[in-house]
Amino acid sequence: KQEVTQIPAALSVPEGENLVLNCSFTDSAIYNLQWFRQDPGKGLTSLLLIQSSQREQTSGRLNASLDKSSGRSTLYIAASQPGDSATYLCAVKEDDKIIFGKGTRLHILP
Amino acid sequence: DAGVIQSPRHEVTEMGQEVTLRCKPISGHNSLFWYRQTMMRGLELLIYFNNNVPIDDSGMPEDRFSAKMPNASFSTLKIQPSEPRDSAVYFCASSLSGAQKTQYFGPGTRLLVL
């Protein structure tokens, strides 16, 4: 059974710092991996999607990497801003199902 | 496009009452998913439909939960009778069919059962 783990569960960093969020998964037979952002009381917003054949995806200050063989992904956020404060969820797709990690709550200190 | 629409956005009810959550997927999408999010368990898939047919309901916690999709533009998730442990945020998502297709999430229904 696929399990997705995100470490740390919570993270606070000063504004302007670069940071890395980690995600690991137990079964490498995935179609893709996706990073989502969730603001308090809101739904999920897709940030980056990496297909299983890809190694990384970039969007603005965000860069996500995928190492399928080791079951790991990272989300790199450059020059963090207070507006980046949110919960970041990692999810892997198997067939039509998505399995989510429990997320990392990120707080950027002004 | 309005995106995935869920109603109500918030629901407060008493234990034992029936609760019905509603979802309208994005037009043209033929896969629909119901998720539940709690602090303890995170986001869990409850059930999903392809072309209005339930494909996998293994995530439905017990017989008190049921889901229907009478047509391509509407789905319901019903809890009868509701219990306090059902309190959670329930998300609906839709996508085109196929493993490579992205799911788009609705804003969620926040349910509180007293």
Give structural notes.
The complex is a heterodimer of chains A (110) and B (114). By secondary structure, chain A is mainly β. Helices cover 0% and strands 60% of the residues of chain A. In chain A, strands 2, 4, 5, 9, 10 and 11 form a six-stranded mixed β-sheet that branches. In chain A, strands 1-3-8-7-6 form a five-stranded antiparallel β-sheet, with no helix packed on it. Chain A is globular, with a radius of gyration of 13 Å. Chain A starts with a strand and ends with a strand. Chain B is globular and about 40 Å long. The model of chain B has no long low-confidence stretch (mean pLDDT 93). Chain A binds chain B through residues 31-32, 34, 41-44, 46, 49, 51, 89, 91, 93-103, and chain B through 31, 33, 42-45, 48, 50, 55-56, 91, 97, 99-100, 102-108, 110.
- Helix content range of the residues of chain A, please? under 10%
Sheet-strand content of chain B, in percent, reads over 45%
Overall mean pLDDT of chain A stands at 94
Contiguous low-pLDDT stretches of chain A (5 residues minimum) are: none
List keywords for this structure.
heterodimer; A: 110 residues; mainly beta; six-stranded mixed beta sheet; five-stranded antiparallel beta sheet; 11 strands; 0% helix; 60% strand; B: 114 residues; seven-stranded mixed beta sheet; four-stranded antiparallel beta sheet
